[in-house]
């Protein structure tokens, strides 16, 4: 049996504290994608980053898929998604890109998928912006 050694535990705590600025900092962002296609249409969605695969999702009309993440200190955080519905096969878009969304989505990155295209909430201004249009058929 190993007895807990007070000095060792204290040293480990100090090492963790000393290293903590290196760990991903602050700012949790909540991202969400809502199906506003109407007409009872389902949306298929698959989002991922370099490190996380959020899995294949089927979203019914008016339902949402959301997740939270921390922005990495290197400014390279990127989540991209591939979606599909009736008229659109595989459409890829960025749900969060640090370069574009650092200010725009400081805490919240909300998207509405509609028949016209994809609207994104500018968390800074509170306005919905028309960001992605569907490719011409
Ligand atoms: C949408 O999905 C639900 C459950 O997965 C299914 O019952 C329904 O038929 C689907 N609707 C359409 C229009 O495909
Ligand atoms: C989503 O729907 C597809 C086919 O429409 C099905 O193969 C898949 O299992 C569904 N995924 C989930 C998570 O329900």
TrEMBL record:
Compartments reported by the entry: Secreted
Pfam families in alphabetical order: Self-incomp_S1
Which N-terminal residues, if any, form the signal peptide? 1-27
GO CC term, one of those recorded: extracellular region
Principal location: secreted
Tell me which UniProt keywords the record has, alphabetically: Secreted, Self-incompatibility, Signal
GO BP terms, alphabetized: rejection of self pollen
Protein family according to the UniProt entry: Belongs to the plant self-incompatibility (S1) protein family.
The protein here is known as S-protein homolog
